[in-house]
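Dear colleague,

Thank you for sharing your sequence with our group. We've completed the structure prediction you requested, and as agreed, I am returning the results in plain text so they can be pasted directly into your records. Please verify that the sequence below matches your submission; if there's any discrepancy, let me know and we will rerun it promptly.
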Amino acid sequence: MRSKKLDARGETSFVVALDDGDEAVESLLAFARAHDVTAGRFTGLGAFSSVVLGFFDFQKKDYVRTVLDEQVEVATLVGDFAVMGDEVKLHPHIVVSKRDGRAYGGHLLEGRVHPTLEVLVTVAPDHLRRRTDPETGLPLLAI
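Please find the predicted C-alpha cells below.
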C-alpha cells in the first residue's frame, strides 16, 4: 500500500493506492491508524480477485455473506471512517461488476486487490463517533 497527502484547499486529502494482493478493509484501517484519521470519507475504484459482500439481516442481526471468488471490477467504493471506543472503524459500501456486466453490491466485508485499488480519502476535522445501536446491534454514527 502506498499513499500521498494531497493539497485540497483547506481539506486534508490523500490518495491511497492498494497493491496486488492487499486486503482492502485491513489496508484502509491500517492507513487510518498510520495517519491518525478518526473522521473522514472515501471513494475508490479498481479491481479484486475475490470479494465478500454483506447484506444486513435485521432479524438475525448479522450479515448474509455473498462470496464472489473471481475477478471483479470495483465500479464504486464509498464509505467513511469514524471512531468507536478507542478504535477507528470503517464503513464501506461497494458495487462490483462481473465480466458479463452483472453488478453486485453491499457492505464490503473483504476484498483481495488485483491488480490495484485507488482510493481518495478526505479527512474531516471533527471526530466522528459510532455507538452500538441496541435495537439492531449495528455500530451507527452518533450525531
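Summary note from our side: The mean pLDDT is 93.

Kind regards,
the structure core
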